[in-house]
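Blinded run. Sample ID left blank on purpose so nobody reads anything into the name before looking at the predicted structure. Input follows.
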Amino acid sequence: IADIVTGLFTQKDNSLENNIPRIYPLYHVVDEYKNFLSSEE
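Blinded prediction complete.
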């Protein structure tokens, strides 16, 4: 995951649209994790 974050920061010159495909899976994982935590309670 650290590599993904580093990649995002080193490619600031790219447009946001170019970065969405890399950012979106990360958000998806976070959402799934939140859903998992809320279902455990």
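Unblinding after everyone has recorded impressions. The chain has a mean pLDDT of 72.
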